[in-house]
Every structure is written in structure tokens, then in C-alpha cells.
Amino acid sequence: MRKNSIKNIRINGEVKKELSVLISREIKDPRISPMTSVTDVEVAPDLKTAKVYISVMGDEEAKKETYQGLKSAASYMRGQLARNLNLRNTPELIF
Fold first, then answer.
1. Cβ–Cβ < 8 Å for 81, 15
2. Which of 11, 27, 65, 68 has the fewest Cβ atoms surrounding its Cβ within 10 A?
3. What per-residue confidence (pLDDT) applies to 73?
4. How far does CA 80 lie from the centroid of its chain?
5. Count of domains in the chain?
6. Is 71 within the bounds of a domain?
7. Residue 13 domain-assigned?
8. % the chain with pLDDT above 70
9. How far apart are CA 34 and CA 26, in angstroms?
10. 51 near 16, Cβ under 8 Å?
């Protein structure tokens, strides 16, 4: 699958939407700022990895804490993606 194929673009959008919901509603980590949004997702053509770009409103300390909270919750989010999306492989999340 090519990087900019229609299927890959669709998967990017689905993963982005699902991660946005997970971060805003399901993750209860106090380190994650409530003003965190997913700006873009780039899933690799082989579906092994996904680069997740986030935007955090606040100072540098809030950004660092949010980043650490997201890294610690990455395995939980990957499991939720596997349950909610019908993909052959669930990508590893890289923030």
C-alpha cells in the first residue's frame, strides 16, 4: 500500500478520530491536559506504526506532562484501537 493511497488516507482519518475520542473522554490520567487535541496521524503503509501529532494548550511543563501521560497510556490506546477499528494490524503509537 502506498503512503498516499485512498485506503491509507481513510485509515489515517479513522485512527485520528478514534484517538481524539480516547484522549478527550476515556483516559483519566491527570497528567494529560484537557486542552489536548490530535492534529494529524500518519499510519505507515504496512500498518506497523502510527505517528501521532498532538497540540497542547499551556506552558512547557503542561506539554511535557501531557507527553509523558500519553506515552504511558499508549498501550491502552492501542488496545482500544484494536477493539474499535477493524484493521489487520493495530499500529504502534508514536507521539
1. yes
2. 68
3. 93
4. 11
5. 1
6. yes
7. yes
8. 97
9. 12
10. no
**Amino acid letter at 1?**
M
Output the CA–CA distances (angstroms, integers) from residue 92 to 33, 44, 47, 49, 62, in the order listed. Answer: 22, 10, 8, 5, 24
| d(C-alpha 48, C-alpha 32), whole Å | 25
Contact 52, 74 (CB under 8 A): no
Position 5 confidence tier, pLDDT thresholds 50, 70, 90: confident
Residue 44, amino acid: A
Is the Cα dihedral 46, 68, 23, 27 positive or negative? positive
- Long-range contacts of residues 75-81, Cβ cutoff 8 Å, at least 24 apart: 76/27, 77/19, 77/22, 77/23, 77/27, 80/18, 80/22, 80/26, 81/15, 81/18, 81/19, 81/22
Cα–Cα dist 29/37, whole Å: 15
> Which structural domain, as residue segments, surrounds residue 90?
6-94
Q: Do residues 32 and 54 touch, judged by C-beta distance below 8 A?
A: no
Provide the CATH number for the domain around residue 36: 3.30.300.20
Q: Residue 1: inside a domain, yes or no?
A: no
